[in-house]
Every structure is written in structure tokens, then in C-alpha cells.
Amino acid sequence: xxxxxxxxxxxxxxxxxxxxxxxxxxxxxxxxxxxxxxxxxxxxxxxxxxxxxxxxxxxxxxxxxxxxxxxxxxxxxxxxxxxxxxxxxxxxxxxxxxxxxxxxxxxxxxxxxxxxxxxxxxxxxxxxxxxxxxxxxxxxxxxxxxxxxxxxxxxxxxxxxxxxxxxxxxxxxxxxxxxxxxxxxxxxxxxxxxxxxxxxxxxxxxxxxxxxxxxxxxxxxxxxxxxxxxxxxxxxxxxxxxxxxxxx
Amino acid sequence: xxxxxxxxxxxxxxxxxxxxxxxxxxxxxxxxxxxxxxxxxxxxxxxxxxxxxxxxxxxxxxxxxxxxxxxxxxxxxxxxxxxxxxxxxxxxxxxxxxxxxxxxxxxxxxxxxxx
Lengths: 248, 115
Ligand SMILES: Nc1nc2c(ncn2[C@@H]2O[C@H](COP(=O)(O)OP(=O)(O)OP(=O)(O)O)[C@@H](O)[C@H]2O)c(=O)[nH]1
Ligand SMILES: [Mg+2]
Ligand SMILES: [Zn+2]
Ligand SMILES: [Zn+2]
What we know:
Bound molecules: guanosine-5'-triphosphate, magnesium ion, zinc ion
CATH topology of chain A: Rossmann fold
Order of helices and strands of chain B: HEHEEEEE
Oligomer: heterodimer
Radius of gyration of chain A: 20 Å
Number of strands of chain B: 6
Shape of chain A: globular
Number of helices of chain B: 2
């Protein structure tokens, strides 16, 4: 189509139109499907943690390790633009952690996760957490092969974030409203308003207010996680996925 | 800002498709975008202009059609266009709605000049 007037100029006799109709990111989608197969065949629940920078993802993982680290075998893939800091925090607790540094890329993608997954022994992991790059847009666009998306929204960010970042919040399987111990200092953040914004995206995911400082909501969050793990293991045993290890 | 990685994925896919037409030269790339794809059409256009040099798409004209966000209501079964942050069915006010368009960046078709 001609940009100026919208007409369709006659094509030369040698021009062929090829209908494609496929997602531009279809290569990532294939890689994610491959990861999902891997994870399923090893019975590993993968949870993709997303939020803006500093909402408390690593602090949350540390708290999970402290409470569930003996009951489940945990593993972590850490995504950051730079530094190994977050992986060091996790390893300090005796949990295997692979650090991915993306340099300038604002998201993890399925092939990065695939490489990292192969550096872990999936047979020794029950729950694999993927801490995505702190960013409220780009990570949502790249499927990694995870079973669940957990999104953190800290109370210092404002309760209208789901309305401003629908691409991210629509994919939430669970919304954690983090740092609620700070609510007394932030009189304009209302958990209800954040939840309403999420509901307007036709998303019925549970919303749990949570603080790793006060411990509020930790019980509900861990309960959700264990339920998700049980459901995932059940679906794995039912489908009994074959592990054909074909690399695209 | 991930339009450069999206652009790279696009050019890779285009290169793969044109390789099936020996001697072919891509002259047109047609994309369909929507407000929930997470990809900004303007930024993507800039990224493609910047990256296409020295690729099979160097002479290609990029056209991006921006489509609105549309939903299907599971209660009243109407389809409607909605704003990006309120997917309430405009017909019956239900929130049991599902996105049926405007949430993906799609490579619709290519035009390839054959020798
Ligand atoms: N008051 C309070 N502070 C918290 C809480 N959770 C995390 N923080 C603080 O918030 C800051 C950032 O926490 P991190 O866990 O590093 O956040 P993150 O999301 O992993 O950050 P990036 O990986 O850099 O995106 C740290 O100073 C934490 O101590 C909480 O529940 N309450
Ligand atoms: Mg972190
Ligand atoms: Zn593999
Ligand atoms: Zn309706």
C-alpha cells in the first residue's frame, strides 16, 4: 500500500506476494515450547517473577528459600542487565543460581533460559524461579516456557500500574502487592484500586498483599505456590510427556 | 525498549522466508500491530530502517497496520473494540471477556521480486 494515499500500486510481473501470518516472535515461541517440554518432562515447576526494578523479587526469593528450602528443592535463574549480585544472594543460602547478564536487553528470552536450564541439573529441582529483568513492559512479551507468571507491584509505585502497563499485568497468574509494611507512610496506595485495575483487564488472578519485612501475606503466597506445584505435578503425570530432546 | 530485538527476529524470519525463493529480493514487508503487542510501531519502524541495511530486506518498504484492541464477550457474545486498560464489555458490562485482536505483532505477508 502506498503510504501517501493508501492506493495499491501495480506490482511488477515478477513480484510475488507471500502470505505469512505468523507472529514476529514465533522463533521465541518455539524455543519457549521446547523449554516447557523440558521442564514438564523433569517435573519442574517454573515461576517467572516480573516487576519494575527494586519491587522486591530477590528479597521474596530469599524469604521463600528460608521457609520452603528444606521441603522443596529450589533453583533460581537470575536475570539482570549487569552484576552477579542477585545470584550471589541466592547462592549464599545454598541454592543453585545461574546468573544471566543481558547487557542492554531489557528482558530474558526463551533461548537464554534454555542455555541457563542446561547449566542446572533439572533432576534435582522441584521449583525453578526465574527472576526476570526489572521492567514492566518487555519481559511480558517473551514467553520463557514458565508455568506461572507472578508479578510484584510494590506499594511505592502507585496503585494504577495495572492500568498503565496492561501488557504486563494481563499475563499475571498471581499479583503480589509487595512492601505493605510501608503502607502507613503511603496514604494514597489502595490495594483495592490496584485489584480493580487488574480486574478491568479481565484478569481473575488472586491478589495477595505481602511484606517480607512484617511477614504479612507470606502464608497465603506460600500456600498458592504449593498448590500450584501440586497441580503442576498432577498435570505432568497425566500427560506423561515424552522427552524428545530436539534442539531447534 | 526491545524494538531492536523484535526487529532482529523480524529480519531473521524474513531472511528465512526469502531463502525459499532463490534470487528473490524482498520489496515489501507488511505487519499488523496492536496496542497490546508491547511493541511500539514507530520505534519498530526506526529500528527496521536502521537494521535492514546489508540484509535481504535492504530495499524493502515496511508497512505497519495498527489495529485496535478488540474483545469477545463470553456472556453476550458480542465483539467490541475497547480501550487498552478497560476490557469491560461495552454491550453488557461483563468482565468475562477475551482479547481477539490487537495483542500481537504479526508478519502478515511479504512481497518478493523474482528474477
Ligand atoms: N520495607 C520493605 N522493603 C523491602 C521489602 N522487600 C524488599 N524490600 C527492599 O527493597 C529493595 C529492593 O529489593 P530487591 O529484592 O533487591 O528487589 P528486586 O526486585 O530484586 O530488584 P532488581 O532485581 O534490581 O529489579 C531492597 O532494599 C529491599 O530490602 C519489603 O517487603 N518491605
Ligand atoms: Mg533482584
Ligand atoms: Zn534443550
Ligand atoms: Zn457482553
